[in-house]
Amino acid sequence: MKVASPAPSPKISRVESTSDTLSSRGGLFFFGKYLESAGFFRLVGNHLADLRKSGKGRKAEKLVKQMVCAFADGRGHSMTDFSSLRADPSQAAILEMNLEEMAGGDMMKRFFRKFLGRKWEVLRPLLSRLFLWRLSVEGPKVVVLDLDTMVLDNDDALKREGCEPTYKKVKGFQNLHLSWQGRLVDVVFRSGEKHSNHGEDVLRILRKTVASIRESYDAQVPIVVTMDSGFLDGDIFTALEEELGIGYICSGKLYGSIREKVEALPDADFGYLRKGATCWAYAEFESGLDAWKGKERRTLYTSLVEEDGQISLPFARPDAVYYTNLGRCEVLDKELWNRGFHRLRFAEGILELAHGRGESELIHRSVKEFMGREHLPFQRFGMNAAYYLFQVISHFLLECFRRDVAGEIIPLRSYPDTIRRKVIDFAAKVVRTGGRVVLKVTRSIWESLEVERLWARCQAAPVLTT
What we know:
The protein is of the alpha+beta class. It has two domains: about 20-120 and about 380-460, no CATH class; about 120-365, Transposase Inhibitor Protein From Tn5, Chain A, domain 1. Helix content is about 40%, strand content about 20%.
């Protein structure tokens, strides 16, 4: 009778090194391939060509590829991190670059020095181009933008240019953001003391964005911008109404004159808006501030009367007020009707959109999680501005990758760390065989992520026009 040999022991008896090219960030290959297929690196090379003073050194597209992938990976928090990645052959293999093409921290610093002064603003048109690309891909019938500011806490940076006290009682930067569907589409990098409606920043960013949409996407598409009370300004409203012809919903403040009008309204003038187990009472009327010189605008007042099925007592109800021109602009209202969004002319639709600002503001949480930390690495203002713009661009691209390539794997509402854990942080082996370079993953990863489908989709990305 033949006796079966015992199974080998699973105990590890020794450790050794290997010369195999192994990476713990196999998904970066698919992200980089997606950007290459979309033509992003070619676009960057053309856009930043003037920054290169001679034929020596790295091309901009090579530096940006390494940078964007490091930001998407979450390991690029400082210039020394780039030096560490440069020494890792697996990082070069995953990015389809030769090791000598990889840039270290010193080279990255020299690259960012090219953005001193106001030169960092050359990156804003690049972000705008990405926005127009996604408009053409996703084809929205109505473009809803959100305007807000975000503070970057750099309180421990004693000598950083532009690091000033903010309204959050920390020193840092307070940037003006314009967002669309969870992505930042334009950014004004500003020092910390700049309030929401500082100078002409708001009107400049809106004029530029609206002109781009009208010229490159759809000349007639309805555009609506939502804002908080930091942008409560009659001059802004007038420009949006008369110059740009777009809609707006802006949070107001509960001044005494507003409360007096509300208290004078009969109960019959109030309606009710319900969403799940939450209910608001609302009323609408015309009102204006003294600074508006007698001009009154459509005003919606809301009071939370029921939350999670529990009735709110009158003295504890959070009230809110909104100003809007929706339903008061003939051309805009007609276009909304023609495109099936006539609900935005009425109070219920306006309030639903206004309450949706809570989701729009989650973009700040997403960007900060993507960055890993709010501290910016440089002393000079222009270099930090460029660094932040590249972070924003990388965040935008990772979100596009999730939608175009990993949409069936990653839920619609996902933060960057979820994307990293599911489609970037997995083991891969790069081997050369038969004159080819092959990326290999385990069978479990192959099946759970449907790697063959990822490979096909990242090579069929919507193409950016240069």
